[in-house]
Every structure is written in structure tokens, then in C-alpha cells.
Amino acid sequence: MTGQLLSSGYPFMVEGNDGPRPVERKLAETEVALTILRDQAINDLIKGGTEQSYTSNVRATDTGLKLSTAGLRAPNLREMEISGAVGAENVWFNPMESGLRLPSPGAHAEGNFVVKDKSGKVVERDKFEFFGSNVDDLYGRPDKATMQVLRFDSKGNIMQAYKPAISEEKIVGGRYVNDANGQPIREAKLSEGAANCGLENPGSYGNRRTECNYLISDPRYGTNISYNETVSNQRNTRRAVVRMGETPIAIVEQRLVNDKDGNLSQVVTEIRKPVQIKK
Q1: I need a labelling partner for 10 at 20 to 30 A (CA). Which of 110, 129, 150, 263 fits?
Q2: What is the C-alpha separation between 195 and 198, in angstroms, rounded?
Q3: Radius of gyration of the chain (CA)
Q4: Of 109, 99, 216, which is closest to residue 165 (Cα–Cα)?
């Protein structure tokens, strides 16, 4: 069953069984932009232990975003343009679900983007996917969603995937297992189609932060690394813990600034090593 695109450009809405559900193009292109901007920083810290901070100025266009970043080591991404479109439909099955697929009607949005450098050369082609279950909407949880970002090189070869994951605190013998800092150890696994984004504490009306969990598949690292991100809409910030297995290896923070029309205008990306309270 195909959904009805209620408006062109962004924002747009997918007509669900329980009414329209908003899914914005802004969300798709912003997720792609933030993924690209933090990639070099994460790689530099993992490979060389380098902490860094850089600022990206962003200008919205009719087709996407233009970004200019001072301090970014990847020369082909210091000046880049992200352009593309997002399509939407109602589906009976979550397309990101793996294994045995059970009926799961909901709204599916897919964005396909081209990333060009300053000279206009295509450097990558990226894909953003979103799925929101009608069942979650029905039970008052429209915040829950399954999201992923896939990055391909200019020839279409996959080079990085942010796969939907679930991050759980490690329990052994009925007790939480803590790390050297006394914090619960977290383990990430693929969500297999279950929502990987939602309110951090849905029972608390005072805490409206959203949490998203991913497993990053990247051949440069030889193993999956997990990305546990907390989004504060009030502060317009995103803070994430990057783990290799159970071990935290990096803290990433991205602070966003929007213009008067709500378009992304600036991003500050910072990465540092986790603070070790105990040795």
C-alpha cells in the first residue's frame, strides 16, 4: 500500500492508518551531514588518539545543504554539497527488519543523496532510511523509530553503515556489571528491525531527550563499533559514546545552530577520549 505524499519538499508527511505522521527531509539530510562530519574525527581518534574540534558553516539550498568546514583534515570534504530527495510510502513490512519478517504496518521514508566536493565531483552517494510503526503510534509512542544511514563511494560500493542497534546494560547473575569508572557496561547488538531511536526516559515528562543506537560497520576498523547517541532538542546538541566491544573509546559531541527558518546553519563537532576516573 503506497502512502500519500501530503506536501512537496520539506517538511512532508506520510499518511498512516492512524493519521499523518511527520517525516522531514531536513531530518534525512541532517543525519547524513552529521555522519560525514564526525567520520574523520572518529577515525583520527581511533587510529592516532587525536582529539579535535572544528566548525562547519551550513547553507540550505532548494536541493539540500552546502557545508564549509575549517579544520577538517579530509580535503575533499572541507567544501561539500549534499543534495537529494526523500520518498515516502506506507508499508506492511519494515524493510530494515532481518530474519523472519512479520507484518508491521507503518510509514517508510527513504532518502538518497549525492555528496559533491568543491569542484563538483561526486565523492559519495548516501542513503537514509526511516521506519515508524503504526503500532507504536497507536500506543502513544510516535517518538520510536528505526533509522539507518548507509554511505557508498562514488562507484556505489558500500564504505560505511550505521545499522540500527539496541544498547543494553550488561547483567551477570542478576547484577549490573560496571566498568572501571563505576558505570554500567553497555553491550550493543543489531535491533533486527526493532526501533533503535526513542525517548531516553518515556516515563519522565521533564526529560525529553531522545536516544539512538547504531552499530557502525566500517572495514577500516576490522570490527563493528557501537554509537550510543543522546539528542537534546532543547539544547540542540547530540552527545554520543563510541565503544569498541564493551570499551568506551571516544566521546563525540555535535552542537547544532539553526537559522530563523529552522534550517541548519552551523555545526560544531568535538571528539575526545573518555575520562578515566580510575586506573
Answers
A1: 150
A2: 7
A3: 19
A4: 216
Three cell numbers, residue 154: 562514488
Give the distance, in angstroms, between the CA of residue 142 and the centroid of all CA atoms in the same chain: 17
Please state the pTM of the whole predicted model. Answer: 0.86
- Which grid cell sits at 81? 554539497
CA 17, CA 93: separation in Å to the nearest integer?
14
Pairing type for strands 106-117 and 79-91 reads: antiparallel
* Type of residue numbered 86: V
